[in-house]
């Protein structure tokens, strides 16, 4: 019916953010896991520092178990996935059952990964389902506004993560371009000056990631 | 049953597939146990209940007749009260009961419809006779489960649907939408949910998706200038003309009912009284679906429609009447006793299953509170096969039929068949571990 409440707008935005946070942190965790095979034992502490999450893990083994799968840990991957799910489950009429089902499948895959002998392989299925979720959301959600709000959440989260982990400049520029093109296509209230600043900062030879993240955080009206 | 027109093997192996798909689509219901909310899957059984075209035509006529009479009854109780004046229904069964809402007195809802969606529970006895077990006129749930099961079952086993001529039940959302549009007073249709932690939240969200109505919480709606509005995120106010509310009367409006409700909409009842919004179902319907009032429904059919009831009640006794009390005490072991204040399969006890001590206790309670209980003959339900360990075993099952009162009465050509998984039990409620089946109505 083309009208969205404040609450659902907020949920769509955070759905975008948490699906992206889950997706990208699984990628980063997989890289980190690889680094732990033949790298130093405290390799994971650098991971926590870069993501700016508390290093509450006594050793690498504990990290590999609890960072992805511990539901009592608010920074774990599964906690972020469940936040995405909690937002999505109350948006069925906006997203559609088909789209929502891929997030449900991601949750099942995550549960399976938690008890698997080959967790990285199973986490790939979580990634697959998140990619499918975004794909089908883009393909089937009728309301352009709904699609764009999810994407804005996704882009803002990605810029935030890329800033923290100092991703290569070309990656950051690409995400900023995507965000600056996307926000005006929603009906979200945003700070046009900040958006313009962001676009300019992306073109600088050495973008200041700290300021980019800071400005991105303040783009949308509270 | 299924075995009459198909071999159970045709469908047995699809149970697991469809159950996996139901899990994928989040088809669950919630229960509160020991103070904690828990969601669980609603087990689906792939062997359908099959109802032939002629048999359904009979049921359809009976259901329309019954719900029409019930609607007339509610209209009368909140209007002229002729049925009480004419001593067809004693006033003890109306005004003292919590289902009667004095606030509804004198209100005529949009298009005069009170019972927009009726969930009528039936069972079929072994001799093939259908009996009405219960009328649900407040917030009956369950239609979404056979709807989505059919959708998934058609994917899982398309050949079967090609082979048999089955009425397509996926039109429930169309029936619902047309009913909502008919009573709508001007504006959007919305489905009002108490939220994610309601037992039937899946259904609320699924019906919103399929009807195109907006799923809302109470705080997303506001009453201003005698009209109801949905406030969107830009602050724009969109008029709302029909509210399919999935919350009970007492929580609907804190200004008129339970003042502590945080899930309702202040003053919505005031504008409903003025005819400025349709509430689906109408408040106050509880007066007509109490287990005690059930006894009088066949009398309502005769009184309001001047017709003989097409569908029968299960033989029922009201201990309120001395003659019935004497019968109940004498035939205690042959009867099932129901507490009229309970629902969901709770408060149902079989006389034969009690110890002598408990029987005596119960009889004493019966004498002390005769209005609180009804007694019914135990109907030996016709068993329906369910899939169990790869084979088929018989189990008790009921049928919830859905009747929608829009421009004309509409009976959904399907229904929710619930079954007991326990071979010893007659209780089919999902909250007590039951499962569900699709209900096939054959087309000619």
Keywords, separated by commas or semicolons:
heterodimer; A: 222 residues; mainly alpha; 2 domains; 11 helices; B: 444 residues; alpha+beta; Dna Ligase, domain 1; six-stranded mixed β-sheet; 14 helices; 22 strands; globular
What is this entry, summarized?
The complex is a heterodimer of chains A (222) and B (444). Chain A has 222 residues and is mainly α.
Strand content of chain B: 25-35%
* Average pLDDT over all residues of chain B: 91
The low-pLDDT segments of chain A are none
Rg of chain A over CA atoms, rounded to whole Å, is 18 Å
Q: What share of the residues of chain A lie within helices?
A: over 70%
Secondary structure: number of strands of chain A? 0
Largest interface, Cβ cutoff 8 Å: A-B, 20 and 26 residues
**Outline of chain B:** globular
SSE order of chain A, one letter for each helix or strand:
HHHHHHHHHHH
Radius of gyration of chain B: 22 Å
- Find the count of extended strands of chain B (DSSP E, 2+ residues): 22
Reported for the largest beta sheet of chain B, the result is: 8 strands, mixed
Helix content of chain B: 25-40%
